[in-house]
Structures are given as C-alpha cells and as structure tokens.
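hi! just following up on the protien thing from before. the input was this:
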Amino acid sequence: MSQKILQHISLTDELISISRIISNSGVSSYIVGGFIRDSLIGIKTVDIDIAVSNKVSEIGTLLAKKTNGKCITLDKKRNIYRVITGTLYSNIQIDIVEAATGIKNDLMNRDFTINSMAINMSDVAKMSKTTIGIKDIIDPYNGIKDLESNKLQLTSPNSLREDPVRLIRAIRISSQLNLEISSTLKDAIFEQSHLINKPARERIRAEFLNILKQKNSSKWLREMDSLGLLTQIIPEIEHTKGVSQPKEHYWDVFNHLIESVNKIEEIFEYCLSKNPQNTTIGTQFMSQIPTHPTIDCHFNSIAGNGHTRVTASKLACLLHDISKPETKTIEETGRIRFLKHAEKGAKISEIILKNLKCSNSLINIVSSQILYHLRPGQISQKSEMPSEKAIKKYYRDLGTVAIDTLYLNMADYLAAKGPLLEQSDWEKYCLVINDILKNGLNKNIPDKIPNLISGQDIMNRLNLDPGPLIGNILTKVQDAQEDGIIKNKEEALKYIEKFTSLGE
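and the predicted 3d structure came back as:
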C-alpha cells in the first residue's frame, strides 16, 4: 500500500536563515537525510543533517555563533560536528558532515534510498517563499518512489558492511515509519547479521531502545529474530527457544517473552493512550485492566538513557524469564519447575544491560522488576484479597518499581494464558492487582524504611554464622519495625534475643 507524499516541503524562516549563513561562507552545502524523508510524509522535525564540501568545524563554529548556540564535536576522526541553535532558532539540532568528493558520492555512501536525497542550500538561501517543490530534490536513487511505496531498500550493496549499525537501523526506521523491508535488504541483513557486534555498544543500544519505544515493538522484535539480529545482540535469548513450560503456559519460553512485550504494549495502549487499537486481548478483557490517574505521569517519566518507564517495562518483559533455561528441572511426577529464576534472571539482565552500555538507573529499574516479577501473584492466597499489611510491605520492598512490577505481572499473566485466557480467572486476578494498585497509591505509602540493624549486627549479637537464618531474622525485624513494635536499634537487638530464645 502506497502512502501520500507531499509535493512541497515547508521550510521554516530559521532554516532559510541557516541556509543563508552557510551559503555566504562560500562552501557547497546540502540538506540531506532524515529531514527530507520526514518532511515528505508530513512529519515535523528539528533534527537536520547538512553535508558541506569543506571547512566542517569552521561552519559549525560559525553557525553556533550566528544562532547563539553551541558546537559539539561528535566524531573528530570522521569530521562530524553538532550545532544546537539558540532559542531564537527553536533549538534546532544540526549535524554537519563532510562531503569532500561531492554530493553524489555522499548520497551513494548513505544507508537507504529514502535517506539518500538532498536539497541544495544555495537554492534555499535564494528563496523568497517558504516551500520547495519535490522536483527540486536531488534524488538519484529513487528514494521518493520507495517512500511512496513504503519500501526500505539499500542505497549500495556495501552499505551494511561499511557501517554495521545499519543492520539494526533498518529495523528502527521501518518500525518508526511502518515500512516494509525489501526482500533484498532482508537477505543482506540475515547474511551479515554477525557484523552487528562490531560497532560501539552505545550505538547498538540507542537503536535497540528506539525500536522498543515504538508501539508495535513486539512485531519488530520477531522481525529482528527472523533476520538473526536479536540473538546476536542478546545471545541469552537463543537458549529460551523451544524450552517447554508447565501446562499453565501456552507458549515456550521464547514466545512467552515476545508475547509479554506484546501484552504490555496493549495494556499501555489501553491505560495511557485511552484509545486502544488493534489489540488482541478483547474488549471484555481490556475493560478489567486496573488503572489509576497517577500512572500516566509515572510511566512517562524518564527511566534512563533518555527513555521512559514504558520502554523500560518492555525491556523487563523481554528479559523477565531469561534464566528459565538454566533453572529448569523436571520432577519425577513430571512437574516442571524454574527454581529461583527471578533472582538469577535479575542478575543475568544486569549483565546483558551492562554489556549494552545502559545507564545504571535503567539497569536498576529493569533488573528490580525482574527480581520481583512474581511478587504480585504471591501477595495473597488464591481467591483472597491481600491484607493492608501485605500491600504496605509490597510497596516498601519494591519502592520505585512497585507500580511497574504490577503491570509486568499483568503482561506475564496474559502472555502465559495466551488464547486460553478465561474471563472469570482474569476478573479475579485483576481484582487483586487493582486492590494492590489503588490501596497502595491512595494511601501514599512511603518508601522502604531504613533497616535498624544489619546482618552483621545479628551475627555479632547471637554468635551466628552467615546463612539463610540471618535473612529470615532480618525479615522478622523489618515486619516488627513496620508494625511499630520496635523503633530503634537497641529495641531490635532485644527483639531478636527474645524470639530466638523461644526457638523461633
């Protein structure tokens, strides 16, 4: 299906002014890349790529001075500079690159045909109007035609080898613009997928998180897997394929992980956009999903690396059962178990995310969700509502990820049941989650209170060796502290002497 392409691109007064500044410097300059692509399909952007024949750093410095902005060196070796203009220029971001051998060679060396278009800035500088016609766009590789046809195609057969980040960028651009990757490009990605680990991990992370950011990211995760990229970036996922689960689960571990991402996307579509479209859950199930006025602000807050908690939750869904292959056991009765998979999964996810150079804050939010992802289902007995004490303890233990984990648990539940989801079971489950969500938030429970004593204090006082008993005693102390039975360190130490003397 083709999409409508605008016949004229609107140019702001600021962009025309910038064109005149550069043209007056005497160098050949062109607007290239994503700005033209996005403008043709009606997407507004303040990110502009400009190719100049020479004097790249000088042009960057000049632009920064004339626009009351600043110039940053992005890649000195590749001669790439970024200018952030001042407020009078709407804080436009301009990346300046060198096209020393001419614009035709520059376009030939770009990644995809829809990005291999240019506009001569000297033409813009001379304009008395604020639009430029489609016929004035330099388009040697038929990028306009491909954009109109919703096709993503390589500009050059060597494009992926020249910069392997383009392997995953193809997925990111397609997910953002809902493009179909051409069969030729798919074949090329599959054959060269092993090259994805050559570029800096920060660049891979940026593209990967931007894919997860999209509303339909679960679809594109499957596309990445079919092209060999997903397991190149996260090798641990390969081991989840074909790993069977108990009868309560419809999917194997791998498909469960992808479906969990799909389900949390649908949950967020319902809870955050208030206009769910193309959901597979069904309206009778969708209407039961617990929500609260505060979650919009919560999930739209930044988790790390410039991404919101929505993206972080999708990442947690993708990784929450990552340790199941190594923790799987089958008992004599045939029962399948994954003992301590949450704890081990949290540790594995930390390794994965550190390898991707994610920020500490993002790592902590994701790994904490994985560590506690079973907790909402364990907070009360079946068919019983959780106690006020249990809810209070839940929020204090989980702290800043308490809400996130509730929604991860919902996605996990839906993905586990798959098409076998029963209305009555879902309603009962949602009643519990709703109670945890609303009672916890409405009572404004404070963050986890600090411990009065440490494990070392317990070992010293009771002359005990390290072991599980220390953790059990700490839990008892925390419960007593939350109930107001003990209020300081000395009371805590006396408390543990009392119950240990009674053989507890």
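Residues 253-273 form the longest helix (21 residues).
The mean pLDDT is 91.
cheers
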